[in-house]
Amino acid sequence: MRRSYFLLILSIILSTAELATAQWVQTNGPIAISVRCIAVSGANIFASTSDFSGRDTLHRSTDNGATWTSLNTGFGSLVYSLEFKGINLFAATSGSGGGIYRSGDNGDTWVKMNNGLTSTAVYSLLIDGANIFAGTYYSGVFRSSDDGLTWSQVENGLPKGTVYSLAVNANNIFAGTDSGIYRSIDNGANWSVANTGLSTASVYCFTISGTSIYAGTKSGIFRSDNNGVSWVVADSIFAGNVIYSLASRGTDIFAGTKGNGAFRSTDNGLNWTNINDGNLGNTILSFAFSGTNIFAGTNRTGIFRSNDNGNNWSALKSTFKAFTVFSLAYNGTDILAGTGGAGVFRTNDNGANWVSFNKGLFGDYIPVNTLVIKDTKIFASTFDNGIYRFDENLKNWTPVNNGLINISINSLIFNDTTLLAATYGGLFRSTDNGSNWTVLKKDLIDSTITSVLSTSTFLFVSNKVVSRSSDNGSSWSDIGIAWSGSRVASFIVNNKYIFAATYDFGVFRSSDDGATWEAINKGLIENRIYCFAVDDSILFAGTAAGVFRSNDNGTNWVAVGLQPHTKIYSLLIKDSDLFAGTYINGVWRRHLSEMTETNSVTEPIVNTNTIRSYPNPLSGSTTITFSSDATGFADVVIVNLLGNEVAHLFSGNIDVGEHSVTWRNTSNLPNGVYHCLIHINGQLKKQSLVLMR
After folding, report:
1. C-alpha to C-alpha distance for 394 and 382, rounded to whole angstroms
2. Distance CA 24, CA 561 (A)
3. Which of helix, strand or coil describes residue 533?
4. What's the gap between Cα 518 and its chain centre?
5. What distances in angstroms separate CA 91 from CA 21, 114, 145, 400, one per listed residue?
6. pLDDT at position 265, please?
7. In whole angstroms, what separates CA 509 from the centre of its chain?
8. What is the model's pLDDT at position 8?
9. For residue 586, how many C-alpha atoms fall within 13 Å in the half-sphere facing its CB?
């Protein structure tokens, strides 16, 4: 029986084709990662990153941040703090495989240094002469005097809780905890509370400037001029603001806030100025200095650099992982992308460069699901922060939610000069470009509207049923439809047809203004449809399994790329290109001419010998070898049969030739068939793997 099972598995491996997407080109973003900490040593800059898919990676740059290389650290967890001691770089991590790691070769190789640690959730590091201090979760502070070979607990007087930050000033060591500030004057042997004047408990960061100590807390910045004996509010401008990062250089102090960007003081903290130029993200997690440059690590918007003391910031292009894109729109030469948590990005060169376009968008988490452009007006809807309008004169976004009873928005459209908003509280209308909103139909107030469509004769709204109005929303009638119970993600009109994209039953078409509908799914391999785009008579559909095309109004569909595991949340046709916004892979582009009837529209087969794996079947680990005929970016992931990622093996630049990665840590996975997906310069290669113990 076991032999039969093995032969069946072997046949699956040999018959699995590899699909390539050579015609699709991945643009350079939008990049949306969180940069928890940054460290600088000579020409080497290190950044700890995390993206929305849970990938925690350490990157290194040797050219001032122009390009980055993903380091194969083996941590398996997020790096919360990085500190240099001589040639040794120490990394504090938390999570599976956490603790403290050390590298003596600029991050090429790492050794776990946990001897004596009773907690492997380490959030902060401090270098003080020959000593290294580590702040942990619920185990206080640890100290090492032998470059991390051994650790001893030094927690006498510390409360049970998290030590978020550590700092030293003269002979005083300070610990920022979730119970306030504690100070030690005997090298950490004993600690005493130093909270006089503090109005909050959680202390996330410190910096020293002149004779003063600054503490960033859950509620602003506090300053002590007497080594922590007492604290005063540094500036009321930060009242109620969470401060995640502080850094100082000379008389300049930089402060990173949650949701309100970066601030700078040039007079040792007496006065502060907001230095967000519209590019820098809203939440700043870290700062670092290198020569005349300042680096800022942000939450969900990547890493930025300033060479003029923070007056202007530029996003650094890199091999960082691209982000989820829910919506696409264009305005002249600009393409706008609404992301799944990092606000809006803009490009004016078809995706070669993306910049943050978030000035005025409020919050730490900004998912933008719809972008609408009408004449010179740009509108963005969010899942939980309502609707924003871009002010061309002020060059920023302003909220326009007056009259909305629910600011969870699903979609926006224009009906001539009227703006319609489908919300979790019903359908709303604005006749003054969003300044004021009124409910369009009273009995829709308590219903969730997922999509809205305007035709020359009707309005349509959908939740799990479709309602139609012929009098601009004064009265409505429900339409009995075949997809009852499934939500409609979007509508589109092409020629005499209305098309509906459903989450569960594929595509539906109506030729009689929505009175009747028919399913049109021939050729589709996935019933979850997210979006449409139309180019003359050609209809494109974005699905949970790539992009499909129909040139006969949906009667037949053929695959035109980004299969088989790419979710397409948004489509945009601009000039001669089709743009696709994807799940965690940013924006892709393909020429429309490549997807016409006379051109190849199916995915070419890639020879299976371009990827090798041994052993396969595997019982523990396997080494995967692949080759590339050009330099560029490669990303290697393992997914299960549902397309869910179970391991991320590599992400970074590669040279021409053969490369190998190893899939380890399979002990928590069930037996079965998995796929190794290798993206190289816009091409996807796939190898089936069988885990069998």
Report:
1. 21
2. 7
3. strand
4. 37
5. 38, 12, 16, 44
6. 96
7. 35
8. 36
9. 27
Tokens 């992009």 locate to 547
The token pair at 660 is: 């190998």
CB-side neighbour CA atoms (13 Å) of 489: 25
C-alpha–C-alpha distance, residues 220 and 682, integer Å: 45
For residue 490, the SS3 value is strand
Q: Measured between alpha carbons, how far is 240 from 237 in angstroms, rounded to an integer?
A: 9
- β-strands 587-591, 172-177: how paired? unpaired
Sign of CA dihedral 405, 407, 412, 417: positive
What one-character DSSP code corresponds to residue 544? Answer: T
Radius of gyration in angstroms for the set of CA atoms belonging to the chain, rounded to a whole number: 27
Q: Which of 166, 132, 139, 167 lies closest to 153, judged by CA? A: 139
Question: What's the rounded Cα separation, in Å, for the pair 288 and 689?
Answer: 42
At residue 12, the pLDDT reads 37
Nearest Cα to Cα of residue 141 among 110, 111, 186: 186
Coil, strand or helix at 140? coil
| Cβ contact 119:138 at 8 Å | yes
Closest-CA residue to 342 (of 323, 366, 362, 358): 366
pLDDT recorded at residue 601 = 38
Distance in angstroms (rounded) separating the CA atoms of residues 460 and 443: 15
Cβ atoms of residues 488 and 506 within 8 Å: no
CA distance 471 to 587: 38
DSSP, collapsed to helix, strand or coil, labels residue 587 as strand
Read off φ and ψ for residue 610, nearest 5 degrees: -80, -15
- pLDDT score, position 25: 86
Spatial strand order in the sheet of 131-136: 122-128, 131-136, 141-144, 152-153
Q: What is the pLDDT of residue 459?
A: 83
Find out whether 254 and 214 touch, Cβ atoms under 8 Å.
no
Cβ neighbors of 447 (< 8 A, separation 6 or more) are 426, 463
Helix, strand, or coil here: 218? coil
CA–CA separation, 362 and 365 (whole Å): 8
Give CA–CA dist 602/598, Å, rounded: 12
Cα separation of 539 and 234, whole Å?
A: 59
Residues belonging to the chain:
693
pTM > 0.85: no
What is the C-alpha to C-alpha distance for residues 149 and 347, in angstroms, rounded to an integer?
49
Question: Which residues of the chain register pLDDT less than 70?
Answer: 1-22, 52-55, 317-322, 364, 441-447, 480-484, 563-565, 596-609, 642-644, 681-682
What DSSP character marks residue 502? E
> CA 176 → CA 103, 167, 222, 234, 548, distances in Å?
26, 8, 12, 17, 54
Query: CB-based burial of residue 478 (10 Å sphere; 0-12 exposed, 13-18 middle, 19+ buried)?
Result: exposed
Query: What's the confidence (pLDDT) of residue 7?
Result: 38
466 backbone φψ class: left, alpha, beta (φ>0; ψ -120 to 50): beta
